[in-house]
Amino acid sequence: MTTAPRIDAVFDLDALLTPEERDWQQRARAFAQERILPVIEEDFENAHFRRELIAELGAAGFLGMHLTGYGCAGAGAVAYGLACLELEAADSGWRTFVSVQGSLAMSAIAKYGSEEQKQTWLPRMATGDAVGCFALTEPQGGSDPAAMTTTARRDGDGWVIDGAKRWIGLASLADVAVVWARVDDPALGEGGRAVRGFLVPTATPGFTATPITGKLSMRASVQCDVALDDVRLPADAILPGAEGLSGPFGCLNEARYGIIWGAMGAARSCLEAALERATGREVFGKPIGANQLTQAKLADMLLEVEKGILLALHLGRLKERGALTPAQISVGKLNSVREALEIAHQARSILAGDGITNAYPVMRHAANLESVRTYEGTDEIHQLVIGRALTGLSAF
């Protein structure tokens, strides 16, 4: 499904983009429409992750596309956001894959890794030859990483990691895991009693990733429980540039930025489906789109899509200038996901009974967005981040 001409007539986004940004968007849209949309309903139904698309995403330049060097495309923040928008317009699971690979795992290595670590992993991850995951969240809760119980201790010249992680995207497919653990090693100076990151090849004995079953959301992607039992690593497995929670948070903010754009892709897809239905289905002798209440719903949906994308664009320009703050990222993530879910609900009402079937993408998007609303910070966490920025007082 292409972007509805009537939407473009009201919202001319292209006028605000550079030719390079439009090119990235069109390439991502083509990939989504040609490689994901024809199979996504079947994959969602069967809880199947189509691993063969990973190399294709790499060949198209989407993996770590916002990073520079090591085989990465070096695209701007807005171009990356537009790619996220188009991929999530197909399915949140595929934007999530690009986000976990590029914004979390690859960004952690690029930001905090040694030159040897970067050379070892980033080129392979950019092509999709190697897959990474980001192991931060633990079974007892994800919103308080300062309370993590996973530990890394010195053992001779190396490290031993013990603990458990949950809801770790791609872990059972990954070749390397970025694992965050609490250490107590005075030899590391002030950073020796803090959270540190480690690169853990997933073939290491003691590392076990088990896909989580029974999901009613994000069914075409993979999330796992991870067990770390006496995982032994060499001394150089530690990420030298990351000390404390600023390390994982720096990566989470990269992923949250992609969500700001991506959720608007899901929202646009729902609006397109509702618009198609409103202009194509007749009730009481006329298209349902000719009724005032239906037009009011469509207008409100378009309003929030346009506002959300314009906010994402503003934040992208700030990011390109190096001026984007965590509180601003929280504004974008909170707004985009919350409004995308409301748009999905309104679209379902226009689709009526057929809206609960897989003849339309709306219920799939709504289910996926419930997960997107939770990961990379819940609504409540982002409200508290914004509240702290407004008042100067922490309510955490």
Automatic annotation (TrEMBL):
Residues 133-231 form the Acyl-CoA oxidase/dehydrogenase middle domain. PROSITE patterns: ACYL_COA_DH_1. Pathway: Amino-acid metabolism; tryptophan metabolism; Amino-acid metabolism; lysine degradation. The keyword Cell membrane does not apply. Keywords: FAD, Flavoprotein, Oxidoreductase, Transit peptide. The keyword Glycosyltransferase does not apply. It comes from the Bacteria. It catalyses: glutaryl-CoA + oxidized [electron-transfer flavoprotein] + 2 H(+) = (2E)-butenoyl-CoA + reduced [electron-transfer flavoprotein] + CO2. One of its GO terms (molecular function) is glutaryl-CoA dehydrogenase activity. Residues 18-129 form the Acyl-CoA dehydrogenase/oxidase N-terminal domain. Its EC number is 1.3.8.6. Its cofactor is FAD. Residues 250-390 form the Acyl-CoA dehydrogenase/oxidase C-terminal domain. GO terms for biological process: fatty acid beta-oxidation using acyl-CoA dehydrogenase; fatty-acyl-CoA biosynthetic process. InterPro entries: Acyl-CoA_DH_CS (IPR006089), Acyl-CoA_Oxase/DH_mid-dom (IPR006091), Acyl-CoA_Oxase/DH_mid-dom_sf (IPR046373), AcylCo_DH-like_C (IPR036250), AcylCo_DH/oxidase_C (IPR009075), AcylCoA_DH/ox_N (IPR013786), AcylCoA_DH/ox_N_sf (IPR037069), AcylCoA_DH/oxidase_NM_dom_sf (IPR009100). Belongs to the acyl-CoA dehydrogenase family. PANTHER family: GLUTARYL-COA DEHYDROGENASE, MITOCHONDRIAL (PTHR42807:SF1). This is glutaryl-CoA dehydrogenase (ETF). It comes from Microbacterium azadirachtae. The lineage of its organism: Bacteria, Bacillati, Actinomycetota, Actinomycetes, Micrococcales.
